[in-house]
Design goal:
single chain, mainly alpha, globular
Amino acid sequence: MPDPDDGRRARAGAAVGDAIVEIVSRVPATRRTAVTDPEREMRRLARQAARRAAVVSGGLSLPPGPLGMLTLVPDLVAIWRIQSQLVADIAGLHGRSASLSREQMLYCLFRHAASQLLRDVVVRAGQRVVVHRLTSGAMRTLAARLGVQLSGQMVAKAASRWVPGVGAAAVAAYAWWDTERVARTAHELFSRDLVVDAQAVDVTDAPREAPEARPARGAARRLRGGVDAPSP
């Protein structure tokens, strides 16, 4: 017989995937402009965003039991909105707000949580980083896969909601850490020489290189095994 838990996980994954598509497809505007020391300003913005994310996530986690279950997806969406604005602001600090794409947003928000799923979206090629554009279908497919993976986090959050107070503190702490990871990924990405592929690809295909990146073809192929933006 089919496992009811599998069905619930699939539905949760689909809901999260739909939310991901909506978030990354609406790149927020920013008033931040290029600065001489983007890392210092990034850290300041990251602390502010992490604080807001912790307050929002902790507050939504206060209702215990079944009532808390209703806040799971809204919790994720609220945090992602804060983080997406942070990514846009960091792009502005590097003078890249005009070229910020949904693929870059997707990568910055979820690279630390699902690096294997995103290994073909942003690929390091020598000193350059190649950003592959995705078709609408590819974006939805990838978001659905992310949704299934991230729904596991929803299960953990659901368990914490049965422990009032303690669960809220744990969820708030995770939101803080998660937001700081997003900031670090965005800073690393926008600090690099970015090359955006002119042709959209499907995640089921081998991504094609942008014409500007062809001299780095060999390096890109060697790094396709999951190495993307460098770790700090």
